[in-house]
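A brief tutorial aside. Many learners find it easier to grasp structure tokens once they have seen a single protein encoded end to end. The record that follows does exactly this for DNA polymerase I. Read the sequence first, then the structure, and try to relate runs of similar tokens to stretches of the chain.
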Amino acid sequence: MPDIPDLVLFDGSSYLYRAFHALPPLTSSHGEPTGAVLGVLNMLAKFLREYPAPRVAVVFDAPGKTFRDELFTAYKAHRPSMPPELRAQVTPLLGIIAARGLPMLRVAGVEADDVIGTLARQAAAAGSRVVICTCDKDMAQLVDGSITLINTMNNTRLDRAGVKSKFDVMPEQIVDYLALAGDSSDNIPGIQQVGPKTAAKLLAQYGTLDNL
């Protein structure tokens, strides 16, 4: 068993969509869709077994727009609306997590990854060791000596060396890396003719976007 952290944070929203698309369309005896519920709960249970920290929080996106939609109107605009079969599973999933007595957060106007980032940075600043369970690559910017990422879907672990190996930049360069290369998953364009490899080379040479 790995070292037990002081705080674990579970990115419920990132796993909700992935479980929905990864699992077959399971239903209950009443014909209600259950695949995403089962998938998220299984991944959450696995994570808590492997990292039984004294403090836990499960974080989901709140419904409605966020401050990023105000800053950039095309933000995630290419993504289709949540399928009805998935939307029908959100309330039951939240109810089951609440019934288990796990602390759960949904902050209006703020995405789950922003909530997780704030909690992780505050906890690390107070001397806590934090493990974040997520599929979101944006979280790589949080990794430092106190914060580690875990993805239970593919059993990967990202510390500082892991971020460097995966992206060819250090965690503190991830924001500049995505600014240069863009982020197609969020519909955010980068610099023309600059892809991930070129972005990594530029940051290896100049260190930061400000130095370019």
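Self-check: The chain has a mean pLDDT of 91. If you spotted this yourself, you are ready for the next section.
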